[in-house]
Amino acid sequence: MVQQKVIGLIGGMSWESSAEYYRIVNETVRARLGGLRSARCLMWSFDFGEIEALQHAGRWDEATAELVSAARRLERGGADFVVICTNTMHRMADDVQAAIGLPLLHIADPTAERIRAAGLSRVGLIGTAFTMEQDFYKGRLASRHGLDVLVPAAADRAEVHRVIYEELVQGRALPASRKAYQAVIARLVERGAEAIILGCTEIMLLVRPEDSPVPLFDTTALHAEAAVDRALAGL
């Protein structure tokens, strides 16, 4: 009997969104295979307080070493491929991939593929300041997938980032913050965004389709579903 591939999940950044990964992966496997079927997966879950401190101190080399260690643990545990359950930490995706003998499923790729399949090319990106301002994410969207990526203005970027770290990663989704995100999205649409990428895995806890006049592409769901695609390939 051919078995599912084992999904190696690097989670805990934050655990709120990692729980969504686990839910989506298992619900998708059950929907596709039926009955009592669920995903074959492993998860290494970080203490996010430690990772967040490294992020905001700019100690990216140390953060990279932590992710490499997690990926190697999953490899030793029997994972067939690795999924980093956060957008921001894809800053070190290439380093993680180079350090292990397993494929790494990059979060930007299934997102971009779905956007291109919808016939769209100009997108707004909201996420942490690291994701919006550094090139590791929007650069991949542009160079590998031909997308024109817009990010919010500085004040909007600051508010989007604040809400993620002060509220969403702590499990809080406040009505005032939802309104603030609606306004940020509206301004991106005014600048020509044909769609919005929810480029932080916690944003789906706050923003819903009715909050945007253009399609939303939720990286959490798209990444988790792509992991299932890979796990079930060949069955």
TrEMBL record:
Q: List, alphabetically, the InterPro entries matched.
A: Asp/Glu/hydantoin_racemase, Asp/Glu_race, Asp_race
Q: Which GO molecular function annotation, any one, does this entry have?
A: amino-acid racemase activity
Q: Which UniProt keywords apply?
A: Isomerase
Q: Which Pfam families does the record cross-reference, listed alphabetically?
A: Asp_Glu_race
NCBIfam families named in the record: asp_race
Family, as annotated = Belongs to the aspartate/glutamate racemases family.
Q: Output this protein's name.
A: L-aspartate/glutamate-specific racemase
Gene giving rise to this polypeptide: ygeA_1
